[in-house]
Design brief:
The protein is an all-alpha fold. Helices cover 74% and strands 0% of the residues.
């Protein structure tokens, strides 16, 4: 079984729809999170026991400072047979999920001051991720 890769262009299109106002921030958040969770589940199902065992071993090496973060990331990609570029793309998609997770469609000024995102904050953060993702996909 091959390690499942997200459809990065689908996420790019979804981001573009938010940035251009074709969908509301709430619609974006709902669609993005649902798609990400579906993709995550497919990805987790594609991880073999051998991949999991090797990942566990390099995680232990990293936790004990035997290998650097860069060495860990390189080994992680090697185990899953993905490129460094795919790893960077995946990281952007994950950051989009985290951004959606702190979005509240009814956020007050106090909520925003405490780290939650309102509509404007979500659009701003996703706009930045959209530019990063677009550049990597060129």
């Amino acid at each position: 079984m091959t390690y499942y890769k997200f459809d990065y262009n689908m996420y790019l299109d979804l981001m573009k729809n938010l940035v251009t106002g074709k969908i509301t921030p709430h619609e974006f958040e709902q669609s993005y999170m649902k798609q990400w969770e579906t993709d995550r589940d497919k990805q987790n199902a594609s991880i073999t026991s051998e991949m999991e065992s090797k990942t566990h071993n390099i995680r232990l090496l990293r936790e004990r400072n035997i290998i650097t973060i860069e060495q860990y990331e390189n080994k992680w990609c090697e185990i899953r047979e993905i490129s460094e570029k795919d790893s960077l793309l995946h990281n952007i998609i994950d950051r989009g999920y985290t951004t959606c997770d702190v979005y509240w469609d009814d956020a007050t000024e106090e909520d925003v001051a405490n780290g939650q995102l309102d509509d404007k904050g979500l659009i701003k953060e996703i706009s930045e991720l959209y530019v990063e993702l677009q550049k990597l996909l060129e």
